[in-house]
Amino acid sequence: MRKKLISMLLCATMVATVATGCGEKPAEDNNGSGTTSGAGGATSDSSNAGDGGSSETVSLRLWGAEEDQDYLQQVVANFEKAYPDQKFNIEIGVESESTAKDTVLTDIEAAADVYSFASDQLADLVRAGALAAIDDVGEVLAKAGKTLDDVKSANAPDSIEAATIDGKMYGFPTGGANTYFLYYDSSVISEEDAKTWDGILAAAAKAKKKVGMTLNSGWYNASFFYGAGFTTGLNEDGTTTMDWNGTSADGISGVDVVKSMLDITSNSAFMPIADGQISKTIASGDLCAVISGAWDSSNAEEVWKDGYSATKLPTYTLGDKQIQMAPAYGYKFEAVNAYSKNTGWAVLLAEFVANEESQKLHFDMKKQPPTNSNVLASDAIQTDKAIAAAVSQGDFGVIQLVGQKYWDTTKTFGEMVAKGKIKAKDDAAIQKALDNLVDGVTAPLS
Fold this sequence. Notes:
By secondary structure, the chain is an alpha/beta fold. Helix content is 35%, strand content 18%.
């Protein structure tokens, strides 16, 4: 599988907590300094975790996405049942995988004991010493009847590779195929039409319908450039590398990629959708096709009913070539805060959130693509159109690492393309826009 780490840009969520379990210990007792000394540090509770339990209440905080709150409450209930002799006070807070890194690195010691994060954030979290290395807590897993090899063998190899830096694993895989693809109404767009942007737009125009895509996001608009062989990367100092204003290894210029994008956005059947507004736009009924992820499968199916279909991203026309769009393709991991006062139990909770039972529950409740091999092989996964479309892009999806300067700059650039502020016939203006894009993205961190 060809990989270059990608990030997911989702709507940020507010932090809130919902108390579950037993005990009255306040949340602030879950964190503090002096209990660990960097990634992989163990605490005094490690020796008890997984044993018969203790008389003391174990307090933990667990963060997850807003849309996963009901799912996490069920997981916590299942976790507490798995350790009936131990009293817990587990608080569930709201924190999107896409914003976890920024929140955690603001104050690592004040962050949750266990939280979910997207794969693009791994390097920064490890560099900051925020994550306990899973390799260093094997004795805790052993007391729960698990080994690190059990965890690795239970999940897709690529998810384990994506969780590993310098030979150490820093998160339990919880979700795969974290990407976007094409949803379409097969009563309007045929399977053959769905293969290319040209076919999709022509069919949509004939039916007086629209085709939607978010362009004011570097997560989505990068797919045009990645498909043409362009790259992004993350330096050790947190700055980003980008070559979109030059010529790719495939011999394609960035100017030509932008011209192809403008050909699409200038089509009357194309509808640019603001970041975070895809679900709402699908529900409007104006679309016959849209680029989104598995989280919108229920919305698309409800609107298009028998016509509901999903497939890989289409190709786009560049000169006399058809270029396969290459999407952002990542994973989700469950982290253990290296500064948790209850590292042992935090490890067991993180592993439980990521185990086969929980991944199956996550798919059943939220259509989250799993990484667990058994769940992946289930009939429910194999017959799910959205999951099949997402997984089919694994061979050409791009796992991307980018720094902070990437997002605002690519958003502005995407808006210029979506609104036609750059003209397809003006090569000089396109080149200037690309030069400004790369200068902004690769600028030193302030």
